[in-house]
Amino acid sequence: MEARYKRKNTCGTICLKYLLFLFNVLFWVAGGTVLAVGIWTVAEKSDYISLLNSTFYSASAYILIATGIIVVVTGLIGCCAMLREMRNLLIVYFILLFCIFLLEIIAGVMAYMNYQKVDHELRQNLRLTMQHKYMQPGEEGVTQGVDKLQQEFKCCGSDSSLDWADSIWILTSQNAMMVPDSCCKTPRELCGQRDHPSNIYKLEGGCIGRLEEFILSQLLILGAVGIGIAFLQLLGMMLTCCLYQNLKEDRYSACCF
In whole angstroms, what is the distance from residue 42 CA to residue 224 CA? Predict the structure, then answer.
C-alpha cells in the first residue's frame, strides 16, 4: 500500500493535477464571463431584439447563457475527476470539452455566415419597422426599442430624420409632430414638433449605422471570448489526456509492484 501511495503521487502526476486545477479555474472564469455576457445581452439589449425580424441575435444570447452554464458544470466535473483521480470521469470530462469545442466552431461559422444576412435584413426592415409599427397598438416593444435606440445612439430615423415624414404615427398625429420626442437632444413632451438640427440629432447615416456598429462589436467580443475558450479547451484536453495516461501507468506500476 505504501508503494502504491508513493507511485500515485509522483512529481509528474502532481504537476498535472495542479495544472489541470489551474485550467479549471480559468475555464470557470471563462464560463462565467460567457454567462454574464449572455445575461447582459438579454437584460440590457432586449429592446433592440424587437427591431430585428431575424431571431439570430436573440438566439445567440440564449446560446451564450446555455454555453456558460455547461462550461461551469463541465469545470465542476473536471475538478471531481482530478481530485478523486477517477479515470472514467476524466473520459467524460474530455468528451464534454471536445463537444463544447465542436459547438463553438459550428457557432462561430454560423455567426459569420448569418451576420451578412442579419445586416441585409436590418437595412431593409428597420425603416419600415419605424414607419409602420412605432406608437401603434400592440407594438409597445417596438416603440420602446426605437426610443431607446435613438436616445442611446444619439440618432434619429433609420437613415435620417426625414424617414419619419412617412411614418403612420406622424401622418395621423394631432400634435403636428415632425419626429418622436426621443429624437430630441433634450427629450421632453412634444419637443419633436421642431426638427431643427439644434433640437434633434442629425447623425449622418442615421440609427442604422450605429446599430450595425453595435452588432458588429458584439460579434467581435463573442469571437474573442470564443477563441480564448477554444484555446483553453485544447490545453485542457491535452492535460486531461496526460493525467489519464499518468494515472493509468501509476496504477499499473503499483499492481505490478
Answer: 19
How confident is the model at residue 5, as a pLDDT?
41
Rounded-to-integer distance, Cα 52 and Cα 126, Å: 7
Length of the chain: 257
pLDDT tens digit string along 178-208? 999 999 999 898 899 988 888 999 887 788 8
Domain count, the chain: 1
| Domain limits for position 99 | 2-256
DSSP secondary structure string, the chain? -HHHHHHHT-HHHHHHHHHHHHHHHHHHHHHHHHHHHHHHHHHHSHHHHTT-S-SHHHHHHHHHHHHHHHHHHHHHHHHHHHHTT-HHHHHHHHHHHHHHHHHHHHHHHHHHHHHHHHHHHHHHHHHHHHHHHTT-TT-HHHHHHHHHHHHHTT--SSSSGGGGGG-HHHHH-SS--SS-GGGBSS--TTGGG---TTTB---TTHHHHHHHHHHHHHHHHHHHHHHHHHHHHHHHHHHHHHHHHHHHHHHHHHHH-
* φ and ψ at residue 50, rounded to 5 degrees: -65, -15
For residues 157 and 207, is the Cβ–Cβ distance under 8 A? yes
List pLDDT tens digits, range 199-253. Answer: 999 887 788 888 888 777 777 776 676 677 777 778 777 877 877 777 766 554 5
